[in-house]
């Protein structure tokens, strides 16, 4: 399978539109490439030996961290092995009651079946197009990239917080995981320790100083 790197350029709706670059050409090492900042004028890859510009490929991909991919796989397994058999059984039991025209149990079971099958299809599609990125293999020269863990300080309040930049499907603010398409992540991508990021918040612009960038 070829290696890919993503360059997050601003999309039509404000978020980054992921571009994939084929890094399977000879001479490149697996895990040596990074998600670059939104200011990049063209797709780039950063092998451990230096900067190399590559042509854009025509295949879309969905970036996920290793843990994010594992969670989606766990959900898919549960849906197939637990939820799907359970809803099939519920439909069978509802059918056994006779007339289906006014059978609320049957309608509810069919509705749930639609949700389960739809979610299974969605997960299979995302996983089949996923580019799974292990943050520990990144060599981003201290910059904030997809998968990076970032220590920040709010310059107004002095509050300190730590976030990891992850894919849309694995974002969870309770776990301090922010989507790469979120306003704060878009402001942070490409920054290094000592830089200040300006984030558009509901109450206005907030400034965050980058204290540290880690790949863990």
Tell me what the structure shows.
- The structure is a single chain.
- The chain is an alpha+beta fold and 216 residues long.
- It is 28% helix and 27% strand.
- It has three helices and eleven strands.
- The strands form four sheets. Strands 9-8-7-11-10 form a five-stranded mixed sheet. It has a two-stranded antiparallel ribbon with strand order 1-2. A two-stranded antiparallel ribbon has the order 3-4.
- Helix 1 runs antiparallel to helix 2.
- The radius of gyration is 22 Å and the shape is elongated.
- The N terminus is likely disordered.
Helicity level: 25-40%
Shape: elongated
Structural class: alpha+beta
Strand element count: 11
Q: What is the radius of gyration computed over CA atoms, rounded to a whole number of angstroms? A: 22 Å
Determine the number of helices (DSSP H or I, runs of at least 4 residues).
3
**Spatial strand sequence of the major β-sheet:** 9-8-7-11-10
Keywords:
single chain, 216 residues, alpha+beta, five-stranded mixed β-sheet, two-stranded antiparallel ribbon, 11 strands, 27% strand, elongated, disordered N terminus
List the helices and strands and how they pair.
Elements: E1 4-10, E2 16-22, E3 44-45, E4 52-53, E5 62-65, H1 66-95, H2 104-128, E6 130-133, E7 149-154, E8 160-166, E9 177-179, H3 183-188, E10 196-201, E11 204-214
Parallel strand pairs: 5-6, 8-9
Antiparallel strand pairs: 1-2, 3-4, 7-8, 7-11, 10-11
């Amino acid at each position: 399978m070829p290696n890919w790197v993503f360059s997050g350029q601003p999309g039509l709706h404000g978020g980054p539109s992921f571009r994939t670059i084929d890094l399977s050409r000879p001479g490149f090492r697996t895990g040596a490439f990074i998600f670059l900042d939104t200011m990049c004028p063209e797709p780039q890859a950063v092998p451990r030996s230096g900067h190399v510009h590559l042509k854009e490929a025509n295949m879309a991909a969905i970036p996920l961290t290793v843990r994010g991919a594992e969670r989606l796989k766990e959900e898919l397994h549960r849906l197939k092995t637990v939820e799907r058999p359970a809803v099939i059984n519920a439909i069978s039991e509802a059918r056994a009651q006779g007339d289906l025209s006014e059978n609320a149990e049957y309608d509810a079971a069919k509705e749930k079946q639609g949700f389960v099958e739809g979610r299974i299809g969605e997960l299979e599609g995302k996983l089949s197009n996923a580019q799974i990125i292990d943050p520990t293999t990144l060599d981003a020269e201290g910059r904030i990239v997809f998968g990076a863990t970032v220590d920040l300080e709010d310059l107004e309040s002095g509050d300190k917080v730590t976030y990891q930049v992850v894919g849309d499907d694995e974002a969870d603010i309770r776990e301090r995981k922010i989507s790469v398409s979120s306003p704060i992540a878009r402001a942070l991508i490409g920054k290094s320790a000592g830089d200040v990021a300006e984030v558009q918040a509901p109450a206005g612009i907030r400034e965050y100083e980058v204290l540290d960038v880690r790949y863990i």
